[in-house]
Amino acid sequence: MKRALFSGLVMATLSSATYAQSVTLYGVIDTGVEFVNHVGAKGDTLVRMPANSGLIPSRWGLRGVENLGGGLQALFVLEDGFNTRGGDISQGGRLFGRQSWVGLSGGWGTLSFGRQYTMTAFALAETEISGPAVYSLGSFDNYLPNTRADNSIAYKGKFGPVTIGAMYSFGRDSAGTGNSPGQGTCAGQVAGDFSQCRNISALLRYDGTNFGAAASYEEQRGGQNAAFNFFDGFAPAPLGRNGKDIRTLVNAYARLGGVKFDAGWLGRRVEPGEGGPASVRSDLYFAGATYLITPAFEVDGEGFRMVNHQHDTRASMAMLRGAYFLSKRTVAYVQAAYLMNSTRAAYNVSAGGPGATPGVGMNQTGAMAGLQHSF
């Protein structure tokens, strides 16, 4: 009896350990004060706390892991974005608008289901210098800090230095709140029209000791109430049921001494579909460097060049920022950028939310001082 009781307790303990669940609460709070000049047709000056970003957008979330045995794990992520300046919810008011997915993971990779990042996000993450900051690639393409899709099935696997991934969405905006700026709403999942509002993306990435590169492809299909926007001062236009909005990204980085360099190209091609305007294409080039001067102080700089061929809109921007690490979790920073628009362009230097668009052909300066805390 004693042996049986002892064996039962041991087995129960082992079973409990094998299937134990770990749930982590995490988040980032980031905000500051921003100055932007030449706002609107009159060229006014704006001083504000930006809504969308500082170094990175504010968020909080829950991340869970359960070991199922045999190297298999169950995973989930629920992540909410919010605006620190007012405490309101981002992503159209969705409670978990940044991420909401569940999946299984093993030596073969991770298979996940729900609202999640497209493969474009993973091609840029930890390689491109500016990230989702207020002065970044998002100043030229507001979709890039918002690369997510609803109703999606995703696979991502890492095999040595190589990562591969793919995602398919049946309808990229099921909540109808606007999946990202300038895209309208595109719920999809329409009976008899399987391709409407779908999103597909793929990733190939290599990360070595001192060098890495990534390439991604993403295609969004149009549908009812869908739109496309090049954020250059031209009004958004409908993206028809047969329309395509395609982004192709190539990005590489290298480390030399204490300096990390990056460079890349993002090509975008929009075919609006039946009854829409002519196809539109743009090319966005970027290159930058980051240097950790001391363990507590880092300096980043990056240059950007945008060319939209059909709209005849072009712009160049230079960004510089410094971050001082008060602790592992708290960072004080300053950042500034100068953007030069061509005669017909109205690109916005700041990706910090609406209300700072310049007049057509105007150049802009943006500067921000902020504080970020992670938990």
Brief sketch in words of this structure:
With 375 residues, this protein is mostly beta strands. It is built from two helices and 19 strands.
What separation lies between the terminal Cα atoms? 49 Å
Radius of gyration: 22 Å
**Count, helices:** 2
CATH superfamily of the domain at 28-57 and 130-148 and 159-165 and 181-374: Porin
Beta-strand percentage?
Answer: over 45%
As laid out across the biggest beta sheet, the strand order is 1-3-4-5-6-7-8-9-10-13-14-15-16-17-18-19
Q: What global shape is seen?
A: globular
How would a crystallographer describe the biggest sheet? 16 strands, antiparallel, barrel
How many E-type strands? Answer: 19
| Structural class by secondary-structure content | mainly beta
Low-pLDDT runs? 1-18
CATH class of the domain at 28-57 and 130-148 and 159-165 and 181-374: Mainly Beta
CATH topology of the domain at 28-57 and 130-148 and 159-165 and 181-374: Porin
CATH architecture of the domain at 28-57 and 130-148 and 159-165 and 181-374: Beta Barrel
| Mean pLDDT level | 93
Order of helices and strands: HEEEEEEHEEEEEEEEEEEEE
Helix content: under 10%
Give the topology, please:
Blueprint: H1 2-18, E1 21-39, E2 44-48, E3 59-69, E4 72-81, E5 99-106, E6 109-117, H2 119-124, E7 148-159, E8 162-169, E9 199-207, E10 211-221, E11 227-228, E12 237-238, E13 244-256, E14 259-271, E15 280-294, E16 297-308, E17 313-325, E18 330-341, E19 364-374
